[in-house]
Amino acid sequence: MSLLEEQTQYGTLKGIHKLTRYPDGALKDCTLVVPNLIQTPYGELAPQYEDDGLRRKFTHSLSFHPNGTLKSISLQEQTVFKTAQGDIPAELVTFYEDGSIHRVFPLNGKLSGFWAEKNEYELEPVLHFETTQLAFDQKIIGVSFYPGGAVHSFTFWPRDAVTVELPFGKVATRIGLAFYENGAVKSLEPRLPTPVQTPIGEIVAYDVDAVGVNGDINSLSLHEDGGLQTITTDANVVTVRQPGGTPVTCAPSLHMSHFEDEVMRVEPLVIRFEDGRAIFPQGAFSLADCTFTVEHFDPKGVKVSNDCEGCK
Hints:
mainly beta, elongated, 28 strands
């Protein structure tokens, strides 16, 4: 196996097994198979060079931004990084183009028939975190930061939740929790169907289809001043009455399930509140000029037969 060397602003990389480049020839990413130490603003770091074949992901040891600054490093051993949230052990760290920390992942495992989420979770350390609005001790999948160092979001393990105090009450949060740079809560993913008082009445917030890629964007979001911005529900239908107009019904929609024959799935309704309006997929309506009636959504006919009209 012929190994390569490459000069970077962090020193000479040796034992490169695979690499890719940007169109201008600059190094984009590489996989190392021998020990290296690189000099960074965060100290001397050892990129991953061994594939344990079981637990750890082994793709790119290092990746770089087009300007040559470090974009990510998969570390050979879990390494402690100093952040605005304290010392965080990491197996994978990503960086902004200016060199500041973007995301920190305490673990970087791969799930397979030989290594399950339960195994990975058991290795995760419990860490302490604090923002201007809450403090908690928790295992996390990852934490992201703004370039200035303030926390941007937390991504939680599926089994865990953190309770957050919001202007409209306490909400148990799963998957993700995001903040504005000043520390105010920006968005979260409710763990359970949660009644929320909105400008148009009480609506049950919950997104059954929430996907936890990371904690940056979530279904329940707030404006920076604490006012409700978006809410997702599969439990309510809203009837909007405009002055002199026909009532408009805004409800979750039904679609055939991709996983179960003869079963319909509910696609939640997303409502946004902005500039004095309630914004639905059906249109935007003035909060001052319209009246809104919120009722329970009953998806009748969830199960359908193969020969029903309209099922083809």
